[in-house]
Amino acid sequence: MATRVVPSADVDERAVIGDGSSIWHLAQVREHARLGENCVVGRGAYIGTGVRLGDNCKVQNYALVYEPAELGDGVFIGPAVVLTNDTYPRAVTPTGEPKSAADWEAVGVTIGDGAAIGARSVCVAPVAIGAWALVAAGSVVTKEVPAHALVAGVPARQIGWVGRDGQRLADDGDGRWVSHSGDERYVEVDGSLQPAAEASAE
Fold this sequence. Notes:
This protein has one helix at 196-201; strands at residues 4-5, 10-11, 16-17, 22-23, 28-29, 34-35, 40-41, 46-47, 52-53, 58-59, 64-65, 70-71, 76-77, 82-83, 109-111, 116-117, 122-123, 127-129, 134-135, 140-141, 149-152, 157-161, 170-173, 176-178, 185-189, 192-195. It is mainly β. It folds into two domains: 4-90 and 105-167, 3 Solenoid (UDP N-Acetylglucosamine Acyltransferase, domain 1), CATH 2.160.10.10; 169-202, no CATH class. A nine-stranded mixed sheet has the order 1-4-7-10-13-16-19-21-22, with no helix packed on it. A seven-stranded parallel sheet has the order 2-5-8-11-14-17-20, with no helix packed on it. The radius of gyration is 18 Å and the shape is globular.
């Protein structure tokens, strides 16, 4: 499948855009960014220098994904989400001179396969968000989010677990969790989820 880049988008010639991906109006994709296959970058979104997106990612309108962020396959970035990259942000040095690239070190946000970041959330780097996790809209993520965790608030705190469909898992007792369809079953071990089949095999 061919890529689709609308004329008003600004895609650097050194960026790599996977087959079947779409870059929409006023989006900017910087140099050396690498997007996988079938990605969608919405209107006004920003993909920073060297950012990595896996296959089937969606970056919605006006989201800002700053380098050196790395997104796995099937990651959803909601409208107006910000992935930061500066632990100690300043426009100037302590002596009042404008900061240059040599005056700070970029740190990134890492997001696992299938995770989703809700609209207007901010992920403060450096931070990792596990596979299939869900960050509720308007949250501020300042610490690691386990796989399948549901987090919300400012700062974001875990309020439950979610399955691959994004819906909350039900407590089945004794640290066991099940999806609403019954197709997914997990066991909670030391604050993380393991598929029940894997847990029972150990």
